[in-house]
Amino acid sequence: MTIRTLADIAELEKVPLAKRVRHGNMLELLRHADGEHANRVAIRFLSGTTPADPVRDVRFDELLQRVIQTANLLGTEGIGPNDTVTILLPSVPETFFALWGAEIAAVANPVNYFLNASQIAGIMQEAGAKALIAADPSLFADIWPKVEAIREALPGLKVFRVGGKGPAPAGVIDFEAAIAAQPGDRLLAPKTLARDTVAALFHTGGTTGLPKLARHTHGALALAAWSNALMFDLPPGNVLLNPLPQFHVGGSIFGALSAVAAGWTVVIPTPLGARNPNVVRDWWSIVERNKVTIGGAVPTSLAAIMNVPRDGHDLSSLKVFVSGGSTVPVELIRRIEREIGVPVVEGYGMTEVHCYSTMNPMHGERRPGSVGLRLPYTEVRIADAAGDGTIHGDCPLGTIGHVLMRGPQVTPGYLNPRHDMGAMLADGWLDSGDLGRLDADGYVWLTGRSKDLIIRGGHNIDPIVIEEALVRHPAVETAAAVGLPDTYAGELPMAFVQLKPNATATPEELREFCRQEIPERAAVPVQVVPIPTMPLTGVGKIFKPALRLEAAQRAFDAALMPLRADGVTAHVTVGNDPTHGTLATVRVDGPSSEAIVKRCAELLGGFQIRHAVRFG
């Protein structure tokens, strides 16, 4: 069924979910995909980005076989159905064998391998990991040194190595050789797989912060795989280019599981995907050679890709771009649709809802700046919710409130119940931590966040990590980290500090201190700004909304410098707006000018925050 409007979704929901999505677990889903598409290519792995680099194709029948072999290997090695298997792998075919095999035999725990060893070990301890499947340095050099440190911190861990030549290190099992010895046509010790059986633990902390492990269930994964692909209504044989890592729900669920369920081919462009600069450089060549129909990327990657020359490449296979992770700037959407001639489908989701929960319909009206309609069998409401999780009622249409979600695609909760506080609300509602509004046609418009997370290029940064580092500096009294709007990354971390009486410290000194104290480079603030006093609430807490406006003011002021250099007198004010949440108003001295409006769009259109130009 083609989804064009909210009425289409309501009509589809007249059929009970269990009849609409018959696959109640991962094994059923993969077996069905094999039965329908056995001889098609499920995964195409590009070892490099040029035509001369080797390509490895994995058919649907081989995919199912390798997943079952992985599940059997884990059972043979003593990993039980309730044990957790951590996965530290870049994007290679074995990543999918390991992830889905672990979900079928045990509980999978894919982890961001860019974290440092102590952070990874902390997540594994939280998850109760009994086994680790990790990459040899031949796949990605940075992972194995962390594995050695993790083995010291977690003695007794069962470790499997993916990739590499020659014997595995002492006490380590060669993954490829070991699964080859297992049967691939049946499970030796089948695990009971109900819809509510936990399949995976995905951590939500991004690049920093204490881990929150969201439980993913088999039934929710099957629903997400179906519903996330439904908005495209594209038949088997389409080709999805997936540059995202598999520890990210966008990469592993929509970018892989939805594609497999729909009978599409997933193209994996090198182990590091979009983090490999050659992938961005050769993007259009990859699209042409592999006849890509669906191009997927986070907004920062989309912006970089659009700056790569396209001349001489046949892009006639492309049908659509899909994006998420953070808000896509409206001007970027318009540029892609104008220059490439294909729609951009923007969606919204989170780890706690097994990927997308809303999406613009590919075949219906796409509203740039909106994250689209709710997906089938997932409820979305805009509500007045208090800090303690109390829901006071729904907000009127067009009014900003908390974005809440409910339904079988929502996590049943975090592994540690204390993390449910303030997020898992009454009657099954999940507070996303985002603010937004709902229009009369059911489209969701995000306007900001009630949570403090900084989202840099689709990755979450916990500001507490920055703040705790800064207050360790002897000159700092208090610190507050917020997102600095950025036309490429969406946000960059920055911090405001109030110094102790009679203390001195330069911004660069404080930044250098952060570089020494913060283990993750992505979380080091790009600016540290001393201010006389912190803005406070009536109860003495730091009032971050005021600091976010100040950060946005600084970003927009800096972005307008080229316009001022051209002799135009322009002032910008960033403030709260009842429709957009935050709005940057540019006031230009002089009569109205379309050329200046266009120039402002060029300079400011990449920001997620909207802007308006006023004259006079």
General description of the model:
- By secondary structure, the chain is an alpha/beta fold.
- It has four domains: 6-377, ANL, N-terminal domain (Rossmann fold); 378-449, Luciferase, Domain 3 (Luciferase, domain 3); 454-545, ANL, C-terminal domain (GMP Synthetase, Chain A, domain 3, 2-Layer Sandwich); 560-615.
- The protein contains 19 helices and 29 strands.
- The strands form seven sheets. The chain has a nine-stranded mixed β-sheet, with helices on both faces.
- Strand 24 and strand 25 (490-499) form a beta hairpin.
- Helix 3 (26-37) packs antiparallel against helix 4 (60-76) and helix 4 packs across helix 5 (93-105).
- The mean pLDDT is 93.
Question: How would you briefly describe this protein structure?
Answer:
The chain is α/β, with parallel strands linked by helices and 616 residues long. It is 31% helix and 26% strand.
Topology summary:
Elements (H helix, E strand, L loop, with lengths): L5 H7 L4 H4 L5 H12 L3 E6 L8 E5 H17 L7 E5 L4 H13 L1 E4 L6 H11 L1 E7 L7 H11 L4 E5 L9 E3 H6 L17 E6 L9 E5 H13 L8 E3 L7 H14 L2 E5 L7 H5 L1 H8 L3 E3 L2 H8 L13 E4 L6 H10 L4 E7 L4 E5 L13 E2 L4 E7 L5 E4 L6 E6 L23 E9 L5 E6 L4 E3 L2 E3 L1 H8 L5 E11 L3 E10 L7 H11 L9 E4 L13 H16 L1 H5 L4 E8 L3 E8 L5 H11 L5 E6 L1
Parallel strand pairs: 1-11, 3-4, 3-5, 5-6, 6-7, 10-11, 10-12, 12-13, 13-14, 25-26, 28-29
Antiparallel strand pairs: 1-2, 8-9, 14-15, 15-16, 17-18, 17-19, 19-20, 20-21, 22-23, 24-25, 27-28
Helix pairs in contact: 3-4, 4-5, 6-7, 9-10
